[in-house]
TrEMBL record:
Domain of life: Bacteria
Annotated CDD domains: AdoMet_MTases (cd02440)
Organism: Gordonia desulfuricans
Alphabetical keyword list: Lipid metabolism, Methyltransferase, S-adenosyl-L-methionine, Transferase
Protein name: Methyltransferase domain-containing protein
């Protein structure tokens, strides 16, 4: 095994021949490999009996890896089919990613080692090439769509992620068509049971009852809207995805809920109605931008009546210090312009606008890991249909993204928080029960 620490002479520095592709991989990964590495030049490294492995199939894959080191290059090579994860179904590469994550301990090669790697690969691999078609433009090239988090640009990036195909989402998400963290009442609960339980929990936290009015912003396919309407609540949902709105309105009609429920294709900032008994945001905050939190939470406060409740459900970071911007893979392939921060910052921004009192928060990160596990299983079960519907590259991307995010939740790289607040009157009063009133 060859590793490099910056400034430390290393074995490869005195290796005068060319390195094979597997040796280069082995060198850059560092540590004792737990996976098997094979490459199109016939080379290999790592234990022969490893359960999982990487197979670099083409020179194009090498170029992707060299020109974008780290997760972005790996994603490009994998999505394009130039890199295979051996031992894992492409709809659920969780096991292979776990094993790979154990080996991803990149060491900075010494200058001599870098020079030898360059000589071994050839200069042609260091010239950037066109990325896979599933990749969004880098941040600096999105200005044609408007300033970050402007209405125009938000509509573009939401469409990029959510207007993939309603049929594809039905296969992955299941009958609930719910693309947010479920809440599992027990470890053996099904995905559908957990999603229904999530809506039940939010409904109860918001103290909704027949005759109340609910605004659900970023409502997706209208799961919360329909759940509330079935219980006599007049519910309005808004989404920037035209395909979501069309699907949701049809589902509302099919269930005979048109008198109580509506899903509108609209920016949440354009909702004219107000005086709602409750306002929910389930999975929208990730798209808002931390700099826009004051106006975002002010909007939610202003749309609620005095004494009304506001619930924010969003992916968070485990601290409040790191950069809010997503990494290259997530930004280019999953949520362009997405931003995450800690629950502490979310709470403080809600408090700082005035007029809202935060009364409860909780973390559901293990529930999201389980949700992603079940979405991956659904993709595996419907792999052939998914590939026919969206293409193998996009299907591979979704398998990779969901399995990778599952690992992120398991390892406390990301979390999922509910933050519940109440709108105070002008004297700072509210009349909620003294203790939580819902069944956890």
């Amino acid at each position: 095994m060859t590793t490099f620490e910056e400034g430390t002479p290393a074995k490869t520095d005195v290796h005068h021949g060319k390195l094979s592709l597997a040796e280069i991989f082995e060198t850059l990964l560092g540590g004792d490999l737990k996976i098997r590495i094979t490459a199109y030049d016939g080379s290999s490294a790592g234990p022969e009996d490893a359960e999982f492995g990487l197979n670099l199939k083409t020179p194009r894959g090498t170029t992707y890896l060299v020109t974008a080191p780290g997760d972005l290059g790996l994603a490009r090579a994998y999505v394009s089919g130039d890199l295979e994860l051996i031992g894992a179904h492409p709809g659920d590469p969780y096991g292979a990613l776990q094993a790979l994550a154990e080996d991803l301990n990149f060491k900075r090669p010494s200058p001599l080692a870098l020079a030898q790697i360059a000589r071994s690969l050839g200069i042609e691999h260091f010239k950037p090439i066109t990325p896979p078609p599933q990749e969004a433009l880098p941040r600096w090239r999105r200005f044609a769509e408007g300033l970050r988090h402007s209405k125009t640009r938000d509509a573009e990036v939401i469409s990029y992620h959510y207007d993939v195909s309603n049929a594809f989402y039905e296969w992955v998400l299941g009958p609930s068509m719910t693309y947010t963290c479920a809440v599992y009442p027990d470890a053996d609960a099904s995905l559908e049971t957990a999603q229904e339980n999530k809506y039940r929990l939010i409904f109860d936290k918001l103290r909704l009852k027949p005759g109340d009015r609910l605004l659900d912003i970023g409502c997706g396919w209208g799961g919360m809207v329909r759940y509330a309407a079935r219980r006599g609540v007049k519910a309005l949902g808004v989404t920037l995805s035209a395909e979501q709105a069309e699907w949701a309105q049809q589902a509302i009609a099919d269930e005979g809920l048109a008198d109580l429920a509506e899903v509108r294709h609209s920016d949440y900032r354009d909702v004219p109605e107000s005086d709602f008994d409750a306002v929910s945001s389930i999975g929208l905050t990730e798209h808002i931008g931390v700099g826009n939190y004051p106006s975002y939470f002010s909007f939610m406060r202003d749309k609620a009546r005095v004494g009304g409740l506001v619930l924010n459900h969003s992916i968070t970071r485990p601290d409040n210090m790191k950069s809010s911007r997503a990494g290259s893979f997530i930004d280019r392939y999953v949520f362009p312009d997405g931003e995450l921060t800690g629950s502490g910052k979310i709470i403080s921004k809600m408090q700082d606008i005035g007029g809202l009192e935060v009364v409860h928060e909780e973390n559901f990160r293990y529930h999201y890991a389980s949700t992603l596990r079940d979405w991956n299983r659904n993709l595996v079960d419907h792999w052939d249909e998914a590939v026919e519907e969206v293409g193998v590259g996009t299907a591979r991307l979704w398998g990779l993204y969901m399995a990778g995010c599952r690992i992120g939740f398991e390892r406390d790289i990301v979390q999922l928080h509910h933050v519940l607040a109440v709108k105070l009157d002008d004297k700072g009063r509210q009349s909620l029960p003294l203790r939580p009133w819902w069944d956890a």
